[in-house]
UniProtKB/TrEMBL annotation:
GO MF terms, alphabetically ordered: hypoxanthine phosphoribosyltransferase activity; magnesium ion binding
Catalytic activity: GMP + diphosphate = guanine + 5-phospho-alpha-D-ribose 1-diphosphate; IMP + diphosphate = hypoxanthine + 5-phospho-alpha-D-ribose 1-diphosphate
Domain of life: Bacteria
Protein name, per record: Hypoxanthine-guanine phosphoribosyltransferase
Keywords on record: Glycosyltransferase, Transferase
Gene Ontology annotations of biological process type: GMP salvage; guanine salvage; hypoxanthine metabolic process; IMP salvage
GO cellular component: cytosol
Pathway field: Purine metabolism; GMP biosynthesis via salvage pathway; GMP from guanine: step 1/1
Organism annotation: Weissella jogaejeotgali
Phosphoribosyltransferase domain: residues covered: 14-161
Function: Purine salvage pathway enzyme that catalyzes the transfer of the ribosyl-5-phosphate group from 5-phospho-alpha-D-ribose 1-diphosphate (PRPP) to the N9 position of the 6-oxopurines hypoxanthine and guanine to form the corresponding ribonucleotides IMP (inosine 5'-monophosphate) and GMP (guanosine 5'-monophosphate), with the release of PPi.
Amino acid sequence: MSEMRLARTILSVDDIDQMVKRVADEINEVLVDVERPVFVGVMKGAYMWMADLMRAMNREIELDYIDVSSYVGDQSTGHITIQRDLKVDLSGRTVVILDEVVDSGLTLRYLKADFEARGAEKVYVAVATDKRQSTTAGGITPDFIGAQVPDEFLVGYGMDYNEYCRSLPYVAVLELSE
């Protein structure tokens, strides 16, 4: 197995706290007239972002999870597989998809189209971190972005390397060596 080393911190605990409060305010402003929106966390990575946002929103929401996979190890397969589907009916509902990172955009683009096909009235995307170099890369533009981060291998705050480092309360660059 490769040796792992946290090279540097990209987002501190304080940075994340400020980011969460800002994005919660932005979502509350946009959804001010929406009664009980549905928040859908993309598992496993979105759990910290989702919990923090829910506490900061200070409003009634409905919550569900979807577990999808497009990676094996640190490589994207380019194909989305649903491991655990939603339980809530999205027909006529306003949905906010929560994910910890957007890089290729493949997963979020797929989920947004899928939720619209299921009858959602409006689908928003809120990501904690955006690694894309262009705001239109991947054919998806998140409606709410916590932080622009470098396009490096990041771990922490839900992001992992083969299930390692996911629970770190900050975001760091991971370096691997043989």
